[in-house]
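Reminder to self: tokens first, then the designed residues, so the page reads top to bottom the way the pipeline ran.
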């Protein structure tokens, strides 16, 4: 930067460096040269601000590249795990990939040991002693309690962590290996942990949420591979047992060959980026039946046809719980098979199969494995949504900015690149977990926004969703139905909208925020509402104060009836309320017969519905009548003022 250069010129140089994907030190060098050329403190401040913005963009680039590299490494890992391995070889592949992905000094795996009543460390890599392999991790000690609850656990310094229930034998191994930071995640089979994957460093290390999530995804892939290896080992054992019976051996070999080919096709479908619908279709063809995949709220995600009602919802729920407990598909009385879909301890939904013919034991194994593939496709779909999440989050932040910091064209172009049309109506939904589980809710929201073509953010402890559509109430109810079962506590959900234009999301968001505050003041935590559900309170909270819309939605049929006929239903309605709901006194005030008032009230009931005199409706109606009367009075006075004959 020369002596004559300006901060604007420096900003241009920073943009040029960013366009070339220059490293951070180049921007810092530009700042050093520019700072020397600056002549005033204000100029130096603007230069440093521009440089800081540039360095933040470089950091975001690096962060996204790291996420993309991690996702690519996960896909490569999944591909490696599909190759046929015996169990010990497979475990070595898993821990080697864990060390490569997360840079651990040491990694190891423990599996359930039925004879000893604990988890036995089966294999490790990076160790310097022979003390670890074969060690029995007793339930409740070390990380055992957290893992039994299907939760990840990490510590920056194992021996100094007082949260851990220490034992002399385990501490001896940790001390001998020089381990300090340890991360442990459970291996799940049907929602129940059967082992754990560990990674450790010999220095203090604080693991990030991204690293914990990466380790959990690797553990989910590993669990599927271990199950597949167990199936193959059992098949080999069956073949060895029947080797003297050539016919039965050949038949079993043919069945197992078909099973392995189907396994390979399903895994290839998942690794090829196949959508859950494509994996479902492939599994349905292999099993010769109709398959339906539902999300946790019971909505269909993918289907190869229609299945008649599987049974009472409570019976289906109990069957799915039974399937989780038995770790195998269960058959309902209707003949439909049900399988829960789980990964990382999260409920991803359910899979239902209506077969054409009865399932063989091999078919049941294939159904269970196929359900795991569908769950993995759903999990990878969520991972993709999370990977592009920062770009979508930034767009939502800019859409909600007050005042807007970008033009309508810029915002519309950025949204278009993400597959969104901001010219179409959108609604804003706020979801506030009352149990402090924003992390889990945020992960779900990323997937939900990706699925529905919307945007997600987290502001002031609330999940913020911008979703396509016009019905804010329906959107809020859908969010509550899917999110609530995933959390241990209640969630308060508020919807507002729809938007009217590219830059209208900020107004609708502020309206939703005020509605959420009103729900909180009214002690309505855990409720699901839209601003329109709040009646006249919603009118007061709304930015646009749509008085005409409120009057029309409340007493519009009565006003339309009076407008089309020489009747006075609105006037009668007002007199009825003024007379404390007495038809006789209302008739006196209107100078008509009491029977006339009664007939008019019957007509009003036909127009407004039989519950119009209920307390909640009558309050709204009286407010709408007052607003209508005041509006008419003001309009008449304004017209008189324009004519010059009064005020």
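Designed residues (647 positions):
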């Amino acid at each position: 930067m020369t002596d004559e250069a300006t901060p604007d010129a420096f900003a241009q140089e920073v943009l040029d460096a960013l366009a070339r994907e220059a490293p951070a030190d180049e921007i810092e060098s530009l700042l050093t040269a520019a700072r020397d050329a600056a002549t005033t403190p204000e100029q130096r401040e603007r230069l440093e601000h521009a440089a800081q913005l540039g360095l933040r963009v470089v950091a975001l680039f690096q962060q996204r590249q790291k996420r993309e590299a991690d996702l690519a490494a996960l896909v490569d890992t999944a591909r490696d795990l599909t190759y046929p391995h015996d169990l010990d070889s497979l475990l070595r592949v898993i821990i080697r990939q864990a060390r490569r992905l997360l840079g651990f000094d040491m990694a190891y795996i423990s599996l359930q040991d039925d004879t000893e009543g604990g988890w036995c460390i089966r294999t490790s890599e990076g160790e310097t002693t022979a003390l670890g392999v074969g060690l029995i991790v007793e339930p409740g000690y070390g990380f055992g309690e957290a893992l039994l609850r299907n939760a990840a656990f990490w510590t920056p310094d194992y021996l100094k962590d007082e949260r851990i229930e220490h034992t002399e034998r385990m501490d001896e191994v940790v001390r001998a290996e020089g381990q300090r930071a340890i991360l442990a995640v459970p291996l799940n089979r049907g929602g129940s942990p059967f082992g754990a994957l560990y990674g450790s460093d010999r220095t203090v290390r604080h693991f990030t949420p991204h690293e914990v999530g990466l380790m959990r995804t690797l553990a989910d892939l590993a669990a599927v591979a271990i199950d597949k290896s167990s199936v193959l080992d059992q098949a080999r054992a069956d073949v060895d047992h029947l080797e003297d019976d050539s016919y039965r051996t050949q038949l079993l070999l043919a069945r197992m060959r078909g099973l392995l080919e189907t396994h390979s096709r399903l895994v290839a479908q998942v690794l090829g980026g196949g959508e859950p619908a494509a994996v479902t279709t492939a599994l349905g063809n292999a099993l010769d039946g109709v398959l339906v995949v539902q999300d946790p709220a019971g909505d269909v995600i993918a289907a190869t046809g229609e299945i008649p009602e599987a049974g009472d919802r409570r019976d289906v729920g109990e069957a799915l719980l039974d399937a989780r407990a038995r770790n195998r598909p269960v058959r309902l009385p209707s003949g439909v098979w049900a399988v829960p879909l789980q990964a990382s301890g999260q409920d991803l939904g359910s899979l239902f199969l209506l077969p054409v013919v009865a399932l063989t034991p091999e078919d049941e194994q294939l159904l269970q494995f196929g359900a795991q593939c569908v769950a993995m496709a759903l999990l990878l779909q969520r991972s993709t949504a999370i990977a592009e999440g920062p770009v979508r989050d930034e767009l939502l932040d800019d859409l909600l900015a007050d005042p807007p910091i970008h033009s309508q064209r810029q915002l519309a172009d950025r949204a278009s690149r993400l597959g969104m049309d901001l010219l179409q109506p959108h609604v804003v939904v706020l979801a506030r977990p009352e149990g402090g589980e924003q992390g889990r809710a945020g992960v779900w929201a990323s997937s939900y926004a990706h699925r529905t073509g919307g945007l997600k953010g987290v502001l002031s402890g609330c999940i913020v969703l911008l979703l396509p559509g016009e019905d804010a109430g329906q959107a809020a109810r859908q969010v509550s139905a899917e999110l609530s079962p995933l959390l241990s506590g209640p969630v308060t959900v508020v919807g507002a909208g729809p938007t009217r234009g590219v830059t209208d999301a900020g107004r609708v968001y502020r309206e939703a925020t005020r509605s959420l505050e009103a729900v909180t003041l009214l002690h309505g935590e855990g409720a699901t509402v839209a601003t329109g559900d709040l009646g006249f309170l919603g009118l007061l909270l709304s930015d646009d104060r749509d008085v005409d819309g409120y009057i029309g939605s409340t007493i519009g049929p009565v006003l339309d009836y009076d407008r089309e006929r020489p009747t006075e239903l609105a006037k009668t309605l007002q007199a009825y309320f003024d007379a404390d709901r007495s038809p006789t006194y209302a008739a006196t005030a209107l100078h008509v017969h009491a029977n006339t008032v009664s007939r008019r009230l019957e007509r009003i009931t036909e127009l407004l519905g039989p519950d119009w005199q209920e307390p909640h409706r009558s309050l709204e109606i009286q407010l709408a009548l007052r607003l209508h009367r005041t509006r008419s009075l003001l309009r008449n006075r304004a017209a008189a003022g324009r004519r010059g004959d009064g005020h």
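The chain has a mean pLDDT of 76.
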